[in-house]
Amino acid sequence: MPHRFAPCPGQDQSSTRARSKRGGFTLLEVLITASVLLVGLLAMTSTSVVVNSLRRNASDQQRAQAALQAIVEDLHATAREADDDATLWAGEVLAVYGVGGTPGNQIAVAGLDAWQGAPSVATVQIVTDETTTDAALGVALGMPRDLDGDGAATSNDVTGGASLLPAVVQLRWTGSTGQHELTQVVYLLRY
Amino acid sequence: MARRGPLHSAARAARAGFTLIEMMMALTVVTIILIATAASLQREADSVSDLQRITYAERLIQELFGKIEQRLEFGRGFVPETTLNASLGSANTASALLADIAGFPNTGMMVIDAGTALEERVAYDDLDIAGNAVITLQRAQRGTSGYTHPATSIVLWEGTAQPIEDQVAPPAGTFDGTTDDLRGNIFYRGDGVGFSYQVPVDPARTGSFVTATGVRWGARVGGQDVEDGAAALVYVPVGQVTETEQDFDINNDGDLLDTFDLGRIVERAWDGNDTANGTSRTDLIAPIILQEADDYGSDLDGDGLEDPMFLWTPESGRLRLRLFALVGDLSGREVIRRFETVLYLRNGSTDE
Fold first, then answer.
1. Do the beta carbons of residue B153 and residue B90 sit within 8 Å?
2. CB-CB: which of B13, B26, B344 is closest to A27?
3. I need a surface site. Which of A56, A62, B28, B53 has the fewest CB within 10 A?
């Protein structure tokens, strides 16, 4: 069996002769080779950048979930610690997680950047209006509903007598791959 | 313009390769590309390595938080604060009689006369539950001196940090530190390196944690439910790192003089009737948690406020966890990350 790579008579011998006569690479060849190398290296780098970005995203997500859980647990603790007198309870909860409270309804989360134009990463919305709807709130809370135990869902403000307060906790942050959001609904009970 | 094609090709062929200038230009281009790519790859590799370490530490800490949450979800916390029931001489290393030893782990450290001129830290090796005493004492620990303490001196377990009552302008000596919190700055007492608790138990496997008189409280000791048992999460140092060795200001306080313990969170559990009936220890995380040696609960992020690991508010059932983990070193620099969460203990405290 003839050798698989044996040169064809005439053609290959003359080509080999021409190449050996040239004895090197042209600038164009070198630049093409460098370009191919560059494209390969850039592809490697971009893969690394994507992996890095995914890791960062996962890390941000974990941080956001931890912050969300901390806020939700703290809301429960706040509800427990507040005065169990129906006329005071909701007001004391709002004094912590309402507008102007500490931490208030806008909370920064270390390591996460808020959406452009948003004042903070985390927001807490405590619902005191029995007549508001899920559609208006944008979450499934089962509203409107009776929050003060009077058998009707007609009061626009139950702060002076609530037994139950729905709250919506939202985290919105900007990561390396865009904007992200986590939402959790929590029901606070008067003890 | 004259047609140069064939003549030019002929000249090139005769030249047999490229000129020195062409070669230098090509080499320069290739070198620049290679250097830029290598630098970019190195930067990415460093960044990926950094993120990998942080991700690993985050996973460990999240797992720890998960384990703690699982343990405490239906638990209730102790408030291990009591008084001496008899005076304690400065040389006494046998035992100290307490008014109540509930919540004091089977081995640990207590603080006597905190915030006063007589403040002393005393380590103990065991509990005499029937006798309401801690036994086998090591006096004058963590940089304190040994004193004689009168009966009725206040005794705390160093583990629990609790907000004090006066959060407006507490007098010096009534608190051990101020920590930043979701709810603003909080004055607290204690070091905050542990938390003791009980959980509902069912030793006889009846399928119920409740008896006619209420919940059956206890702990899992060595894998068995033990009624009246108790458990504690405690920080246990394993090794030390110094800022001088690392050439890195770990707590960001502007010097390289500090020494830090590196340790883990451990769950200790003991039989609440007699520790001779059983004790157990479970390591909950690898030793990556930092505390300043001889100054547990101190500021670790350089913000001027203390950082207790466990901050327990019995009135609300709120337990804040704040941990600083030494993730590893990168390019000769230590990487330290702060992790924090809040747990709500629905069953509150044993004091209620």
1. no
2. B26
3. B28
